[in-house]
Amino acid sequence: MLTVGGIVGRIGELQTIQGIIQQARHGPAALVLDGEAGIGKTTLWRAAGQWARTIGFVVLTATGAAIEMSMAWAGLADLLAGIDEVVLAGLPLPQRRVLESVSVGRLHTGADQRLVATALRGALDALSRHQPVLVAIDDAHWLDNASTTALGFAIRRLTGPIGVLATFRSGTPDPRDDSWVAPRDPKVLTRLTLNPMSPGDLRALIADRDGSTPPPPVLQRLHTLSGGNPSYALELSLAWNQQRGSSAESVVLPPRLAAGMLGRIGELDSETTEAIVTAAAAVEPTVELIAAATGRSSAELVDLLQPLESRGVLVFEGNQIRFIHPLMAAAVVDAADPGSRRRAHSRLAGVVDHPEFRARHLALSAPHGDSNTWAALDRAAEGAAERGAFSEAADLLAIAIRTGGDTPLRRLRAADYNFRTGALSEAEVLVAPIVDSLPAGSARASGLLLLGGVRGQRDGWASAGELLQRASIEAADDSVTGIQALVWLALATGLGGDMPSCVALARRAREEADHTGIAHLRSQALSLWVLVSFMHGLDTDTEALQTALEIEDAGGPAPAHLQPSAVYALICAWTGRLEEARSAMLEVARRCGESGHDADAVWAAEQLTTIEIWLGRYAAARHTADGALGHARQLRAGLPLIRAWTSLSLVAAHQGRVDDTYEAARQAIERATAANLTYLVRIPVMSQAFVEVSAGEYAAALSTLRPLLDTFDPAHDAEIATGRYLPDAVEALVALGRLEEAEPLVAALESNGSRLDRPWMLAAGARCRALLAAAEGDLERATRHAEQAMDHHDRLPMPFERARTQLVLGQLQRRRRRLSAAYDTLRQAADVLEGLGSSLWAARAHRELGRLSSRSAGGTLTDSERQTAEKAAVGLSNKQIATELYLSPKTVEMHLSTAYRKLGIRSRAQLAHRLRQLDTEEPGDEPTPSSAP
């Protein structure tokens, strides 16, 4: 879930508000932000004001209050408090005095309102001459009439860079007029209504406040009761946390909310109470349903409930009975005594047709369940699961277990449904105590598989290996469970570091799944095969991937990395189709967030971080990685934390933040090592080595990479997914003169790149070959390889990789005295690296430009160019230089432009420094750091 500045789920709305504020830089612009109480208007209003200040606006604020509506000028006084006295002092005396009276609360209600309004307009105009202004009013519906009159007068006459932001409450019986906010030109007024938040947004909001989230059934109940209102949802969540119920039905209204809702109802007779409690207890109340449940005709029921419609409790929409807010229905049910509630559910159970609704009413109609009720709940859960409503299914079985129907097999099914919704802790609590007591064979295999799946997704698949092995043995007569165990066992084996065995298990799982013809099994097995065979250097099994995509079940139980669409995104990324990969992985991340699969959401964030880095979007990558760490900390689980710290190490390394790279890599490596997740150690190790190469610490980089180099398999480890460290290892080896050790690494990139037609391997291989050739003294051949690498980069949208190759090419061009070409190449590299925010590599590019200048500038600056540059360096204008040197201004401009290019600078401010550098260098002096080819 996206967050900006602590705001969850309202990114689009915030961007709209920011756009209006930016528009106000160029002239009047106004925004009316409305929505029901608690929907988040004040949060956005506050964030907008803070943001406006950061971009140079003066922000004048006021907040309406019901108690101050009768206090004339109260709102205007708040706004005036933000205007500097110097501005007010510049107003005509009558205007200044009247505003001073408003500010101190001494202006009586019968004062000249036009004078006040004119003075306000004058103050705003004066203020906006110096910097843009935002007038920001929260709860504007409670602003006093005198203030709104003056503001309306001023707003209609605005001409300068002034924005207006006002929030209004909607859904009240007597909404306030907001026309006073409108400028004279209606085109510059925008109206924005805040809609209810989605379940995913509410989930992120609750997690942000509480550090954890309720299970999916409870979350769905919170969303239903709150109507998507974040304020209500947070209050309901807090109440649920305090009493910690076991099911969605345990969510009850806290006293404050209940009292607010029940206040509208008033005293009711027994017949009306019976009817409204029955309607409130129904899932989808209609006139006919409630009439049948209460033994009345439809007309009698309508007559009975109509007074409640006039009180704002409910409305009739056709034959539907709709409470004015879901909280109203919940308050009615909670306020009824237990006997009345049970009788209402009993009556409804006798008339509803929907099996899930009937089962729920049956369960709630008695303090304890019976075999008929539990059977009904079982059937209802199966029906919910068949339509993909696993959260609903889990909650139905939770009711059965809670009301006395606690059996091992029912627990197993409930755990399975929770697992499918991503509620891993809830699934583990259900299955762990009973797994060994399940009947031997298929049932126990299912329990072991489920427990292994929970721990694998939460803590890492290597930690689940023993459970999955046992599941595979127990499932001798259950091919479905056996194949699922085989798929997950392959993952556990691969993450444990044994890729050949992982590939063999994946091949076997694919073959066995194909024989079953079961779509979700085949989809997972094919996805696993495509994933691990690619990582092992066996190319993309396009046919298998296409088949997996065709039979994918996006709502199925597979972890994200075994979903075909996620594997497709990875293959796109690893083969250089990065924009396509980004779009596909964003969709995977969205799906994970909405379905509540927390561990999968962190996995998707890790992949997105890598893709954003490869695309050169370092800020986006850091935002994604930071969000992943926050999410992982909420989960308090090992595997998500490893992935999040890995992402952060990758971002820090590419941005050149050395200490941050070491710390993030350490966190990831220590956790992965402790969990025996050998394979997950690789990426943070690569991040650490990359930042060491970036800093020119080549011996340290090789020491860091030693475990990877010792196990390197040229035939299987050259893909970017597994071998992205190879160019770093080659550069370090070449810099240290260990050319023979570098040769097989370069050859692996070249041969596999040609065999598989991988742009990254081809580009990196050619660049590395250029480094080797240069170290051997063959600059012509080195240049040829570097130019070939540039050709391969045309197929690879990875700006850092291209700039890194340009850096090598520019160095070679300099050494071959192709100085103009070297300058252009190095300048392009420096510009890209600066733009990316890759500080260490940008500094390296600038050092190369400096070496180019120090080697060439003293000899290539003509006397006229040198004289012109020296005059400019001491601050003379072009016209003054022209006069002193008897040149035309155009010639001066030409000499300076040429000098800038030769000196490797861009502005007059850099001239003095570069000229001093030239004066302190010996002719031809050329420092040679170990990074130079």
UniProtKB/TrEMBL annotation:
Keywords: ATP-binding, Coiled coil, Nucleotide-binding. InterPro entries: AAA_16, P-loop_NTPase, Sig_transdc_resp-reg_C-effctor, TPR-like_helical_dom_sf, Tscrpt_reg_LuxR_C, WH-like_DNA-bd_sf. The keyword Iron does not apply. It holds the Pfam family GerE. Residues 772-829 form a coiled coil. One of its GO terms (molecular function) is adenylate cyclase activity. The keyword Nucleotide-binding applies. Residues 854-919 form the HTH luxR-type domain. One of its GO terms (biological process) is regulation of DNA-templated transcription. One of its GO terms (cellular component) is cytoplasm. It comes from the Bacteria. Transmembrane segments: none annotated. This is HTH luxR-type domain-containing protein. It comes from Mycolicibacterium rhodesiae.
